[in-house]
Each structure stands twice: as C-alpha cells, then as structure tokens.
Amino acid sequence: MKNSVLRAVRRAYTLAAIALASAFSASAQSYDFKPIKGFQDATNDRLEAFLESTVPMKTRKVAVFDCDGTLFGQAPYYLADEALYDYARRNYEGKTDSLSMAKMKIVDQLLHGDNVGVDFVQNRVRFLSGLTADEIQAIGNDMFHQKFQNKMYPEMKALISNLENFGFEVWILSASPELLYQRFCAEQLGLPEDRIIGVKSRIAEGNVATDELVYPVSQDEGKADVVRTFIKADPLFVGGNSRGDLEMMNTSVGLKIMINPDDTKPEKAAGGKTLRQYWTEDPRCIVEYCNDVPAEGIEYVTEEWGVKSNATNAKPSETVINY
Questions:
Q1: Residue 92 belongs to a domain with what CATH number?
Q2: Within 13 A of 288's CA, how many CA atoms are on the CB side?
Q3: Which of 11, 177, 189, 222 has the fewest Cβ atoms surrounding its Cβ within 10 A?
C-alpha cells in the first residue's frame, strides 16, 4: 500500500514537472529577426516590423515564392530548359528510333514555339512523359548541381529562414515542371517536397509520368488559381520577379517582394507600366535586387541550340542601394 502511494506521488510530481517545462518552453519561444545581408536597411526594418506583427496570429501563416529568378538566378538560361535540352542531347539527338525522333520533334517545338503559353509547358511535360517521377527528379537535381548550384540567392534563403522562424508555411510555386524542381529545391531550402508546386502531370501506375496536365496550370494568371486550389489559404507574403508572377503576387493579403523587376518593357497586365514602376507604386511591395550574372566557364546546350539568353541583373551594390 505504502509503495503504491509513493509511486502515485512520484508520478504526479513527474507529470507536473513536464507540464511546467512545456509551459516555460512555450512562453520562452523566441521570434528573433535576423537582418538579411545584402538587403537595404529599410527593407530589413520593414520585414522585421511585418513579421513581428504576425506573432499573435493563430491562423495559418503562408508565404509563397516563385522559383526561377526569385530564389535563384536565371541568367543566362533557365534550369528547366537546360535540363531538358541537355537530356535530349545525351539520350535522343541523332538517333533514328521512334522514341528518339518523337522526343526531338518535341524539342523542336520547344525551341521554335511560344515559350510563355500553355502549349510550351504542355510540351515540357510531353517531353518528360514515360520517365518515372524519380528519374525526372534526378534530372533536375543533377542539372542543379552541375550548372546552377552557385546561383541560389543567399538573401532569399535568409528571408525564408526568417519566415519559418516566425511560424510561416513556405511554399514554392513555379511554372517549370514540378518533378524537375522538387528534389533540389527541397534540399537547398529545407522545405518538404509537397510544398514545392510546379506544372503537374498525372502519374500513372509504376510511378510513371504521363503527358496529361493537371489543372490549374501554374503559368501566369494560373498561379493565382493554384494558390486557391492547392495551397488553400490567402498568403500573408508573396515573392516574385516577372510578369508571370503578377496575379500570384496580388493574392497576398500582407506583404510582397519583387526581385530584379524589369524596367524596360511596358506590361498590359501592369496597366502599361514596367514591372518596376508597377511594383514601386504598390505600398505593400518591397522592391529588392539579387545578383544574377552568368557563371564563368559553363557551356549550355540551350545556348548552342539558339535560345535567347535571359537578362543579366548585376546587383548595384552589396550594401545599401539607393533607388
């Protein structure tokens, strides 16, 4: 009897100690903002104030980012294009079997067609069809490590780290094939693969990718539909870099960040303004710059096959930038 009482008392003390430790841990949780080297002081001040304002929120806190040009560089060429064309050269070019000829016909359509419409993303999916999901992930991951691994923007990695420190769910939303980007983005950014969304295709038995697009498609205005359909939350923070991100950026009910916006081409969707003009006039948008210049000594199949290069964005300064 005496022993059973002692055990009960000890158990009660143990449970009380656990509860007290848990309560202390919760009350001691830190939401420290770490200033982002390479961003303006004004940007860091605004980000810190915004993140601190979200601390009391009890609902889902969602942040959504475009990928190419927003999280890592796209000069001189897109990773998705180089991955596909490099794979085509190594596996199909010059061969006369029916599969190789069919795949090279798709490559010809990619090289000489419109590169911003649904037909373009459909052809990317068609090219990858027949491969397993694991094989496609490996193609993207291998290409990242071969030619793009030094192009991740450290400022954006630091921004994502800050968002997660303040309890945000971070999602990536790309117009590139989803499977092609999932593995290396998850590795580089520390995110679950299922939070990296791109152009989806139906996966058949045997984990084989088909050429059937899954709608909505994450291209231009379709990105906003993807936010509503798959993420199912109004984002508090959205980041992009191009015209294709405009509608997605405007799903934000909080803050936005635009990286390296173009200031040369008027955009109809931006009311005839350049992207820099449009986003500079948005009081809820931060305009910032990350260094995106071609790496030396890398040969690109994309270049050899005549694709126009993307614009270089050399960062004006590594410290304070005056706009």
A1: 3.40.50.1000
A2: 29
A3: 11
**What is the pTM for the complete model shown?**
0.88
Query: What's the DSSP call for residue 302?
Result: H
pLDDT averages per 10-residue partition of the chain, 323 residues? 48 45 45 96 98 96 98 98 98 98 98 85 97 98 97 98 98 98 97 98 98 96 97 98 97 98 97 98 98 96 97 74 35
What are the start-end ranges of the H helices in the chain?
2-27, 41-53, 79-91, 98-112, 118-128, 133-143, 154-165, 178-189, 222-226, 246-249, 275-280, 301-304
Residues facing 214 on adjacent strands: 200
Are 152 and 188 in contact, with CB atoms under 8 Å apart?
A: yes
Write the Ramachandran bin of 175: left for phi over 0, alpha for psi from -120 to 50, otherwise beta.
alpha
Q: Would you say 226 and 197 are in contact if contact means Cβ atoms under 8 Å apart?
A: yes
- Please check whether residue 90 is in contact with residue 96, taking contact to mean a CB–CB distance below 8 angstroms: no
Structural domain harbouring 23: 1-30
Q: Sign of torsion, CA 30 31 36 40?
A: negative
Q: What whole-number distance in Å separates Cα of residue 211 and Cα of residue 115?
A: 18
Burial classification of residue 274, based on how many CB atoms lie within 10 Å of its CB (0-12 exposed, 13-18 middle, 19 or more buried): middle
Separation between Cα atoms, residue 45 and residue 25, nearest integer Å: 28
Residues 67 and 13 in one domain: no
Main-chain dihedrals φ then ψ at residue 200, nearest 5 degrees: -100, 145
